[in-house]
Specification:
Layout (H helix, E strand, L loop, with lengths): L4 E4 L1 H17 L2 H16 L12 H4 L6 E6 L2 E8 L2 E9 L4 H9 L2
Parallel strand pairs: 1-4
Antiparallel strand pairs: 2-3, 3-4
Length: about 110
């Protein structure tokens, strides 16, 4: 019962690659592979329930309300709904400086 189509933009794909490499290097390849699969599944669940996210606190403070986020463990998936499309813009480790990253990527 898909209502929307999820598109992962190149920057978010790069985020996934960096997360995979970090986990594979610091833990194991199998842990990195498992995490990558779960993060991708979490993104694609938005096809059915895109409105389940909330406005990131860092963006709410600036008055920007078109971006939403969902979480998986410490990871934050930042996305935008446009008609029947879900654009995944970023997949970030929530322990990083999210304000700085979002300012660079979304507020240009």
């Amino acid at each position: 019962m898909k209502k929307f189509k999820v598109l992962i933009d190149p920057q978010a794909k790069k985020d996934l690659q960096e997360i995979f490499l970090f986990v594979a290097t610091n833990d194991s390849f199998s842990a990195a592979d498992k995490l990558l699969n779960v993060l991708e599944k979490t993104c694609y669940k938005l096809e059915v329930y895109p409105e389940r996210g909330h406005i990131p606190q860092e963006l709410r403070q600036t008055g920007i309300k078109r971006y939403l986020e969902i979480h998986y463990k410490p990871y934050r998936i930042i996305y935008e709904i446009d008609n029947k499309l879900i654009y995944i813009h970023s997949i970030l480790d929530g322990r990083r400086n999210i304000q700085e990253i979002l300012s660079e990527r979304l507020l240009r």
